[in-house]
Amino acid sequence: MKTYKIDERSRKYRFGAPIETESLVINSMQKMTDNTLKYFKLNRKKNQLQFIYKMSKSDIVLGLGENQRGMNKRGGLYESFCSDDPVHTPDKKSLYGAHNFFILDGAEKFGIFVDYPSKVIFDIGFSQADELNITIEDENLDLYIIEGEGPKEIVEAFLVLLGDSYVPPKWAFGYQQSRWSYPDSKEIERIADSFLQNKIPCDAIYLDIDYMEAYKDFTIDEKRFPEFKEFVEKIKNKGFRLIPIIDAGVKIEDDYIIYEEGKKNDFFCVDEDDTPFVAAVWPGKVHFPDFLNPEARRWFGLKYKLLIDNGIEGFWNDMNEPAIFYTEDSLKKAISMAKDSEDKNLDINSYFNLKDQFSNLINNVEDYKRFYHKIDGKKISHYDVHNLYGHNMTRSAAEGFKEIDPNKRFLLFSRASYIGMGRYGGIWTGDNHSWWQHILLNIKMMPALNMCGFLYIGADTGGFSGDANSQLLIRWSQFSIFTPLFRNHSALGTRSQEPYAFDDESTNIMKKVIELRYSLIPYIYSEYMKAAIKKILYFMPLSFEYKDEMSKRVEDQLLVGDSLMITPIYEENAIGRYVWLPEDMLLCKIKSHQDTRCHVYKKGHAYIDVELEETPMFIRKDKMMILGKPAQNVEKINLDELKIIAFIEDGGSYTYFDDDGSTHSYKDGNYSEILIEIKKKAEEYIVDVENKGNYMVKKIHFEIIDIEGNVIEKTVNLTK
Amino acid sequence: MKTYKIDERSRKYRFGAPIETESLVINSMQKMTDNTLKYFKLNRKKNQLQFIYKMSKSDIVLGLGENQRGMNKRGGLYESFCSDDPVHTPDKKSLYGAHNFFILDGAEKFGIFVDYPSKVIFDIGFSQADELNITIEDENLDLYIIEGEGPKEIVEAFLVLLGDSYVPPKWAFGYQQSRWSYPDSKEIERIADSFLQNKIPCDAIYLDIDYMEAYKDFTIDEKRFPEFKEFVEKIKNKGFRLIPIIDAGVKIEDDYIIYEEGKKNDFFCVDEDDTPFVAAVWPGKVHFPDFLNPEARRWFGLKYKLLIDNGIEGFWNDMNEPAIFYTEDSLKKAISMAKDSEDKNLDINSYFNLKDQFSNLINNVEDYKRFYHKIDGKKISHYDVHNLYGHNMTRSAAEGFKEIDPNKRFLLFSRASYIGMGRYGGIWTGDNHSWWQHILLNIKMMPALNMCGFLYIGADTGGFSGDANSQLLIRWSQFSIFTPLFRNHSALGTRSQEPYAFDDESTNIMKKVIELRYSLIPYIYSEYMKAAIKKILYFMPLSFEYKDEMSKRVEDQLLVGDSLMITPIYEENAIGRYVWLPEDMLLCKIKSHQDTRCHVYKKGHAYIDVELEETPMFIRKDKMMILGKPAQNVEKINLDELKIIAFIEDGGSYTYFDDDGSTHSYKDGNYSEILIEIKKKAEEYIVDVENKGNYMVKKIHFEIIDIEGNVIEKTVNLTK
């Protein structure tokens, strides 16, 4: 083991000679002479490393990104191995992402990142209530330990190592409508027009797999989408972007240009005999581009230009764990077993064997051991670098965009991911269900994903599989208005769940909820951008700001940005919920951006009534929330006048960020800020507004609410 | 439609000429001239009846027995169709039971029982938020509408129609240990000895399918259980009953007596050609006894004697939906499709077709349309009476017991059920998972099952499928100590979850939790017996006793018997929970029967701290809880001295019931009661104890706690 000091907070421990994942961005580090591994007992066996930590009763464990169970991960067994598993029941050990960072907050406080691209097992008090156990079947590994005064400081130190976060265009903070599938241009147009007719804001409509010709990447089915470029333009003129899906597998088909180029240049993953590996996914038989090979990655990334040239400005990368429906070998084996069973009087075990042979065809781990990548000329088993695949597909796209249109921000997010992919794109949390429990899972995942460096995140609102009812969609949306990615997506064969798909009353509520999202964009965008630039969190567990024991235990409330604590409703038929207030706060129940009712709540436990049409949010003490006016889409938002609701005991400040929303110029300091300060002097509130370059906002209306609930209104005109 | 008046509260509406389910016990009723159907709008189509009710905003819907979602069933779509589905995700529309009774509590108040033995669809605000819609694909139906002042009165009126409840022997209120499987006598003995060594109380150990010879009903595998009768005796001498499983399907095997007799007497369900229908389940190919044919039912029921003669006193009836792993036809079709697919370049739809052909073999609804019953000489499609199958298997056993040993109480419960089966046995809630969410589901189901006439109920504590951790087992057990059936059961291949299977600390906690169950048996048994005799509920939602709006909304607290409100912990790592107190109550946090800490809580919302080793329970105002002392098993409980904790403002009374615990003599009035009354007079508490025939209890220690938390202790010696 070698130990390196990265900075005051972070150390790297290298075991053996691991594969470079390039997950972190570390410019320099110093080799240390002190080689003691802190916190963990190391168990070294042949082909195995095991790290053991004895937990105290009060320890909580936060992080691990996209995973099941609580915000506090204690009690669970997790296997970090990107998996296309569409049934997210509470016992699933792996979902689509591999997010090997967590913090322990308790008797000791530290963060750990297990930088290992194949399976990692985290047993966090599952086998033994007080034992945390990390196991890999390898002797080569990079391990990072990050220290800090508290969980927030630890995560912020980790985020520094992750480099600059991906930032989408501003329109990607608008509401987005998806379904598998809106299968042709006629249907897409019908959807766009429905939003316009219902006056429900929306910025993007998605193209799921059926827009392609026979599921071939970078093709358009011309029957269903004739004159695609003109159609993209037409829909854009109506105010909507079209977001096509890109799958990992490339269809094997003669004369299909992507296939031919990939084959010619050896850009595909190969099998043991060095011939391109064949798997079956949506297009039937496919090859997988070797995204770990820089040349192949560049080649694939530049292919996005085929769609960009049609006016496309955003993409979602899917099936990139990679998902495998079957391989020829495994299907052959299953079929031959079926043949052998013919006319036999099967005993029940033989029957289940046969049945399992078919049901285990899909995403069979053994298939991941049958193909290979080329890394620096070396042939590496896919299994050994499995968790880097989706990560590098998304990197491929992001690097492609940089070459295609260097200063333009594209929308990009992925299903599979590894830590570090947050530099290249966002993620959505995959194929969830229309289950109330999945709203809560969504809530719990968000801060964990932020901790792992993913800022642009969201779940399929309303649920992908299964049938939503109107109440579920409304309550879920009332949470999703706070997630950077706010997309409604649902599966083939399920009930329609567009915001207007239910009864009139529900449509009306959904319209107001989505409008509220647009009113909140000044706040959400400002907080997102500050998080990206300053490398801080957008979503936080309460314990990151409040040090009481209760705040460590709350699993269903989140801090959003600098000012808000949210307490979503995630239970069917609920007429309210319990809330922990770690300090006095101002509850605003919002029926529409024009109907905000605010009440002061004292520190402690409370039950709050929340009607179906109300979105509850708490403004923290000495903090403020910014509201704009909704519009049909983000570009149409009029920022002339903003409203600030402030909950002030002593005084507070807020920095409102904005920029062009479409380029990377903010990285060069090309952005505007409005610095707002409210001070209490005697019984007076003094409002100070300093405008640093914002040419949009002309006026800010203040509604200052003091600890007694008194409301003071002020209006400030902005000067440039 | 014909309308009948059953009594002041209940009416029957007959549509067409439905199959008699014999679910209710109605001695007489009067035909009415007024034929208006109350509450519902009737939509009559060819082969379809649809009943529609417009719900008010404040309406809640309770009941439907074994089903997913909330205690309040609004928002859900339910299909009443007994289903062996082992993955109880929130979207499952059918579980094992068909429990077509619910009450609407809101603007109007009524109960409805849809007495129909095939599929019934309940759309309770799923399609339309304010519409309740009941649909059957038939024109023949019995419908019952029950009225009353409130939900409790409605349910009690319904329970009267259900007849006398099943009552198990008293030892069946002890803790019971199960696993699929303890496969041989050696393992069973090891389990028994482990309980004795750890001094953990236990009354029964289960025999899952592996005790049989080749899964043949009423056989014993003599290799694994040599000298079975002696072994049963030996284990009974150690203090444990053995409870074998009985499956619905009878193995097709020459010279197997059950098969031969069934075939000879035409006791099996037949296919279209009148030959016994073949399906495959655990034993491989089986025939299904036609439990709807009274002769076949009697024949099968008397077969239990084969095991009873070996000393067996309890059974669980399983696989009686009936579960079907496959039928020959469907398997042949799947295999032939596989053959046809060989060496073809399958497109992705053909591949999924092939795969689905195999995955849909199990419990395929089409198979239920392929076989027939004989009812009154008529051949009836199984599909049309599907929901009566498990019901009548259990009736078969119960009627058998009555003939075999008329006055003896046997333990009997079933997986599949229909309303009315509560006369013959209990139910367990089937193959759940080791998911925290399934503790909550368990909590929500219990009162709904009670409403449908099932009193002896419980879930697989710790979860059947999946792996439990120690905390889950502890928290689940802290709830299960209140369920009449308290059984720990887990599946093949899962982690062991006996109470001593984890670390020492967990073993110690589990020992105290199970001991607490035994301390509570005086209360639990007393309340169970009173519920059975008086036809009242054992578990109730809060709204049955409290009329405030909050009590209608609480989904995770239950009233248990006359005195208790329970508030289980069902979230991982929780250190407490929120509680709604509809009136002042006394919280007792119990670490062991000797360590009960009680505090008065005022009406309103509260957050209560609950350590892992604490079981919380509230004693309602002017009510009392009885505690005895634990023992290794129920028969060893010493009832000499009881302790009563009473929470008294003005005064309260309690009737303590007991009987021989083993016979049906209680029906003839052969039971004892102790009538306890506590009256407050000035600052004094007067305790009145009247003993009506109890020869066990010598002394009762009273701990009377007043509204201020003052404790008054008294001891009363009992006279006969």
Automatic annotation (TrEMBL), chains A, B:
Which Gene Ontology molecular-function terms are recorded?
carbohydrate binding; hydrolase activity, hydrolyzing O-glycosyl compounds
Asked if Hydrolase is a keyword of the record, the answer is yes
**Cross-referenced InterPro entries:** DUF5110, Gal_mutarotase_sf_dom, GH, Glyco_hydro_31_AS, Glyco_hydro_31_C, Glyco_hydro_31_N_dom, Glyco_hydro_31_TIM
Keywords, comma-separated and alphabetical: Glycosidase, Hydrolase
Which Gene3D superfamilies does this UniProt record tie to the protein?
2.60.40.4040, Glycosidases, glycosyl hydrolase (family 31)
What PANTHER family does its record include?
ALPHA-GLUCOSIDASE
What name appears for this protein in its UniProt entry?
Alpha-glucosidase
- Name the source organism: Alkaliphilus peptidifermentans DSM 18978
